[in-house]
Write a structure and sequence with these properties.
This is MFS transporter. The protein has 470 residues and is an all-alpha fold. It has helices at residues 24-54, 60-86, 97-113, 123-150, 152-155, 159-188, 196-220, 237-246, 248-278, 285-309, 312-332, 338-374, 379-407, 419-446, 452-469; strands spanning 189-190, 193-194.
Length: 470
């Protein structure tokens, strides 16, 4: 298929190099954006639940309720903010970049406040503090993440370059995971227990790093394209929603992503208890973080040739099938040591790494399909719907994680957990992920419609439609 010549519409500004060719600066800038996001997002995913249960002494069930309520609210905030962004005209600095810079400072400040323990306060105060700071932080996260995710659409309109941005974005997330999951447990746990002072110190440090990354993203990324005039889209909300309902690729990738996020957040929540209580080795969490990041970086050079030969859908499905089998086998291997568990699970991590690496390219495809169906290029709105689905997944996972840990009998007040509770935690960390990965495999194989041939044909059809309209 012949690739269409790329044309840039300059932003209404006199900024130098605004039409500079897409290159390494854009890739590094986009990487820094997700690195900044995940310095706090992954910190929260890895340690906030155990911080609330063991430092604030909030029950696991109440923490689950908090996560559920907050993530559902965040899903609404995502869509509202995405729609708001799509109705804004570009400024001198661009349409999306200014929001990343403006909102990053209150976002990071609220993130640090989540880990502040004020001595002498009651349990009721800590519960209220947790609810307020966590919900505000999640709302502010939407105001940064939605413009960041949507910005890829104005950095370049070349499908290959957008896939490259997806890979660099994933690399940013994995670098944050490497730092947090490998070094975090070594710092925040003292004598196998989380330490409040060290946790706050780490939050402040990662807050400074996050701000630095957001500034780097703002400085290095270039918005080259102007979206459709928002005044021309007046009254298009009905068309947008009808188009989304007709967009089968969007619907199925939303469902697959939602389920995947449930699994990711569940594993992040349960792994702390798995290593701390089941294996009695909290510091081994750093090993699983290192292995997971390593698996992704090993998969990175394999993704492009596999996608070129097989297609995105097919590559992701193979990875999901492998992960499902590995975690199913792990469920029956209950006598492994912590290190043996990490080593065996590395194969499963290598499998689901492929889904992680191509997911943003899936999003690009469904945005293109939305344009083909509706004639509207609404990147922020469609991206916010995708992000909303992920937040719903986080809500379900946060709630299920807390409720499930409580349901299997975990009690923070116990010096040692019962064997029933330990076995339950092991099942949550192995059997449940196996089932979820298997379900995603089935969705990709039998329900997601854009295989390699159909994706290539979509690019051709969309190019012809744009030519007819233009």
């Amino acid at each position: 298929m012949e690739e269409a010549k790329q044309e840039y519409t300059p932003l209404p500004s006199g900024e130098k190099n605004e039409n500079a060719p897409f290159g390494v600066k854009d890739k590094i800038g986009y990487l820094l954006g997700d690195l900044g996001n995940d310095f706090f997002f992954m910190l929260v995913s890895a340690f906030l639940m155990v911080f609330y249960t063991d430092i604030f002494h909030i029950s696991a069930a109440l923490v689950g309720m908090l996560f559920l309520v907050a993530r559902l609210w965040d899903a609404v905030a995502d869509f509202a903010w995405g729609r708001f962004i799509d109705t804004r005209k570009p400024t001198v600095q661009g349409k999306f970049r200014p929001w990343i810079l403006r909102m990053s400072f209150p976002l990071v400040l609220t993130g640090v406040l989540m880990f502040v323990q004020i001595p002498g306060m009651s349990d009721g105060f800590y519960l209220a503090w947790a609810f307020v700071t966590y919900i505000v932080w999640g709302t502010l996260y939407s105001t940064v993440n939605i413009p960041y995710g949507s910005m890829a659409s104005v950095i370049t309109d070349n499908p290959v370059e957008r896939t490259t941005l997806s890979t660099w974005r994933t690399m940013g997330a994995m670098l944050a995971a490497l730092v947090i999951n490998v070094l975090g447990p070594l710092v925040v746990f003292v004598d196998n227990e989380i330490n409040a002072d060290r946790m706050l110190m780490v939050a402040v440090l990662f807050g400074i790093l996050a701000i630095t990354c957001y500034i780097g993203c703002y400085k290095l990324s270039t918005e080259r394209l102007v979206a459709q005039d928002p005044n021309q889209q007046k009254g298009s909300m009905k068309v947008t929603m009808k188009g989304m309902l007709k967009n089968k690729p969007l619907i199925w990738i939303l469902i697959a992503s939602l389920i995947f996020m449930v699994n990711t957040m569940l594993i992040n929540a349960v792994n702390v208890y798995l290593f701390k209580d089941y294996f009695g080795n909290a510091t081994a969490l750093s090993m699983i973080g290192l292995v997971q990041t390593g698996a992704v970086f090993i998969a990175i050079p394999l993704v492009k040739p596999m996608v070129k030969k097989l297609g995105k859908k097919e590559t992701a499905a193979i990875g999901m099938g492998l992960a499902a089998v590995v975690y199913f086998v792990l469920y029956y291997l209950k006598d492994l040591s912590a290190i043996e568990f990490v080593a065996f699970s590395a194969v499963g991590m290598f499998g689901f790494a492929f889904f992680n690496l191509v997911i943003w390219a899936f999003v690009t495809d469904v945005i293109d399909y939305h344009e083909y169906v509706t004639g509207l290029r609404e990147d922020a709105t469609v991206y916010s719907v995708y992000s909303m689905a992920r937040k719903i997944g986080q809500a379900i996972a946060g709630g299920v994680g807390g409720f499930a840990v409580a349901a299997v009998g975990y009690d923070a007040a116990r010096a040692a957990q019962t064997q029933e509770a330990l076995n339950g935690i092991h099942s949550l960390a192995t059997l449940v992920p196996s089932i979820i990965y298997g379900l995603i495999f089935l969705i990709l194989v039998f329900l997601y419609p854009l295989n390699k041939q159909k994706t290539n044909q979509l690019a051709v059809d969309l190019a012809e439609k744009r030519k007819e309209q233009g």
